[in-house]
Design goal:
The complex is a heterodimer.
Chain A: H1 2-6, E1 13-20, E2 30-37, E3 42-46, H2 53-60, E4 68-73, E5 76-77, H3 83-93, E6 94-97, H4 109-119, H5 121-127, H6 130-140, H7 157-169, E7 175-179, H8 187-203, E8 207-212, E9 223-226, H9 227-230, H10 232-237
Parallel strand pairs in A: 3-8, 3-9, 6-7, 7-8
Antiparallel strand pairs in A: 1-2, 1-4, 4-5
Chain B: H1 4-14, H2 16-50, E1 56-60, H3 64-73, E2 82-83, H4 84-92, E3 96-102, E4 107-108, E5 111-116, H5 119-123, E6 125-126, E7 130-131, E8 134-137, E9 145-148, H6 150-156, E10 163-164, E11 183-189, E12 200-203, H7 204-210, E13 214-215, E14 218-219, E15 239-240, E16 242-247, H8 253-261, E17 268-271, H9 273-316, H10 318-326, H11 331-372, H12 383-414
Parallel strand pairs in B: 5-12, 9-11
Antiparallel strand pairs in B: 1-16, 1-17, 2-15, 3-16, 4-5, 6-7, 8-11, 9-12, 10-11, 13-14
Helix pairs in contact in B: 1-11, 2-9, 2-11, 2-12, 9-11, 9-12, 10-12, 11-12
The chains are: A alpha/beta, B alpha+beta.
């Protein structure tokens, strides 16, 4: 695995001939001949709602398995793993940020950030001193120390999204997937959040998959992909 | 599992009010269930304690249970009497070691009055073959002497030397009093935890004496025999309610029972106390089962409540489940999280139920003792109760698998993006 990672030609994430159809539907939801992401790459994936974004995220995160094709992350073919192994793989290597309601209401900010370390020995080991790492991330993401012990629900939406980013980044996973993380923020905060996220992903050497319907956010991404452009299922539909 | 426990605790704490209410419902149902079981056990123990060492209770033919209830527990209707001749014949039988004739019917402030002989204090046994002991005074010697059970003396505040009058009949106010012939308290028995504590003991002769000038349950008009004169009459009783019989060897009990049944001069019946008690429990079994079934139903209802509460909470927790999935929780972790919560609430409810029962027994114990002569035990749950308790926790845990299973299904269906 290390050898493959060192090999510049091997992508961090690779989807080949991927076909996914929801049970009970005649037409596939996703039909992606090829999609690759290199290590450290920051990709903006543009997709309307209903374009299969969430399905794609669930596939990459190993929650769903395609009917056909391969999803390879860090040289690991996900279909070859058991469900439990995929769950472990996800927490070991992938940080996730959702649109909203990212935080567990009954945990403090700090405990929310430390959640992946609770489930992953690898993330815990890579974080070093867990609390120290969380503190550093929270500080970088501009969250004042007096918020850390508060229940997550007492924070503003913008603050909550930054906590979610800290959680996605703790223990330096190789991939960070953000699903419309800014849609609940106003325009000014969107930009600020995006900048922070991109900066921290770069600092952590994590590839960033940023999924959004909002084309305006694409500026600044080195690579922009239109989901319908790589998804043949949608091309056939339209 | 260990990484889930703190999460489960914090999550439960977050919903502590609903869960606490659910636990209270479970605690109450557990108290009811165990309380009924314990009451049943204690009632049986109390009854079994009441008579010991008596091989046969002999009385006029009636139902064995009725004879036992009346003669030993002073419960129920007066049975027919048996003639004094029969009692004498019984006492003279070669297999018989001792007899205690007893006569019931009068009362003192709702406590039954028992006419008997000195043999009562010598031969009567209760509990584990314990003899009666006098806390104060001595057995009755004089005609109008009375020996009180511990409870009678305590409740009515009697001391040695106090004068008491007896009432004709058993219950209620407005009973005709034997006011002309007062008794003197000469002895007070030590507590036994049996109906003896609630009994006023006098001699058979005294019982005869106070009824000399009575007929058909009322004083004979125009006839009043003052206490000084009663000794001039023959005070040998004409009949008694029952005779408690002790045999020389227990092995002869069935032969003796046959002898009693075949007794020619009178229709008699001999009852083995243990057998009659067993019959009584058989009779009560249906009622006991019904009570137990009702309380089991209450437990079931409280578990339905638990499942409903946890399931209802699950709808709001779908986001939470998705987040946990995103940070590596397996569906079976989420199953465990929910099942663990239900099991913990059940366990907390069960423990609280046991504590509540202990408090209740402590508070209600003296009352049950004085009103029903029922000793409520304040013991750790016995084997039977532990079985019930184990059953409750098991059923609660099984019931909690349902929300666990639902969480499992939801987390598989939702993945990282709950459809709420």
């Amino acid at each position: 695995m290390l050898g493959k990672l060192g090999d510049m030609t091997a992508p961090l994430l690779s989807l080949e001939h991927l076909l996914f159809r929801w049970p009970g539907q005649d037409r596939p939801c996703l039909d992606i001949p090829q999609f690759r992401v290199a290590a450290d790459e920051q990709v903006f994936i543009h997709g309307e709602s209903g374009s299969g974004k969430s399905t794609l995220l669930n596939l990459i995160a190993g929650v769903l398995l395609p009917q056909r094709g391969r999803i390879e992350a860090l040289g690991q073919e996900l279909s070859g793993l058991s469900a439990a192994a995929r769950d472990r793989f996800r927490v070991d290597h992938i940080g996730l940020i959702f649109q909203q309601f990212n935080l567990i209401p009954y945990l403090s900010v700090l405990d929310n950030v430390l959640l992946p370390c609770r489930f992953s020995k690898r993330r815990l080991a890579r974080a070093g001193e867990g609390r120290q790492a969380a503190a550093t991330l929270l500080t970088h993401l501009d969250l004042a120390e007096d918020l850390w012990r508060r229940p997550a629900t007492q924070l503003s939406v913008g603050q909550q999204q930054r906590v979610a980013a800290a959680r996605a980044l703790i223990g330096r996973p190789e991939i960070v997937i953000a699903d419309e993380p800014t849609s609940a923020l106003d325009a000014a905060r969107q930009t600020a959040f995006l900048e922070l996220l991109r900066r921290e992903c770069a600092a952590a050497h994590a590839a960033l998959l940023f999924v959004s319907h909002d084309q305006r956010l694409a500026a600044g991404f080195q690579r922009q992909v239109h989901l319908d452009g790589i998804n043949r299922a949608r091309q056939a539909a339209t | 599992m260990t990484h889930l426990l703190p999460l489960a605790l914090k999550s439960a704490w977050n919903r502590r009010h609903t869960l606490a209410l659910t636990a209270v419902a479970i605690a109450l149902s557990v108290t009811l269930l165990l309380g009924i079981e314990r009451l049943r056990q204690d009632a049986r123990d109390s009854f079994a304690q009441a008579v010991s060492g008596t091989d046969l209770i002999v009385g006029a033919r009636t139902s064995p249970i009725q004879l036992l209830l009346y003669a030993v527990f002073r419960i129920g209707e007066a049975t027919n009497n048996l003639g004094w001749d029969s009692a004498q014949a019984l006492a003279a039988h070669p297999a018989v070691a001792w007899t205690i004739p007893i006569s019931l019917g009068d009362s003192h402030h709702d406590f039954p009055v028992l006419g008997t002989t000195g043999a009562y204090f010598e031969h009567f046994r209760y509990g584990d073959k314990q003899p009666l002991a006098l806390a104060q005074g001595k057995p009755f010697i004089g005609l109008f002497d009375a020996v009180l059970g511990a409870e009678v003396a305590r409740r009515l505040g009697y001391r040695l030397g106090d004068r008491i009058t007896l009432a004709h009949g058993m219950e209620g106010n407005g009973l005709a009093e034997h006011g002309d012939k007062p008794f003197t308290v000469v002895g007070i028995l030590a507590p036994t935890g049996t109906p003896v504590d609630r009994t006023v003991h006098i001699s058979l002769e005294a019982l005869e004496a106070i009824h000399l000038d009575w007929q058909g349950g009322a004083p004979m008009p125009g006839l009043a025999i003052p206490p000084e004169l009663v000794k001039k009459f023959d005070l040998t009783p004409k009949a008694v309610t029952a005779v408690l019989v002790g045999l020389k060897t227990r092995a002869g009990v069935f032969a003796m029972q046959r002898w009693v049944a075949n007794y020619r001069d009178e229709a008699l019946m001999g009852v083995l106390p243990g057998v009659a008690l067993a019959q009584l429990w058989d009779m009560m079994a249906v009622a006991e089962q019904a009570l137990l079934a009702v309380s089991a139903l209450v437990v079931a209802v409280s578990f339905a409540g638990l499942v409903a509460v946890v399931l209802a909470g699950l709808g709001e927790r779908r986001r939470e489940l998705a987040i946990l999935r995103s940070v590596g929780a397996r569906p079976r972790d989420l199953f465990a999280l929910l099942a663990l919560e239900g099991a913990a609430v059940t366990l907390a409810g069960a423990v609280a139920g046991v504590v509540l029962l202990a408090i209740l027994s402590m508070v209600a114990g003296p009352w049950a003792q004085s009103h029903y002569g029922l000793t409520l035990s304040l013991a750790l749950p016995g084997a039977g109760e532990m079985k019930l308790l184990g059953g409750v926790v098991l059923v609660g845990t099984l019931a909690s698998l349902l929300p666990g299973w639902r969480a499992y299904r939801l987390s598989l269906a939702d993945g990282l993006t709950p459809r709420v």
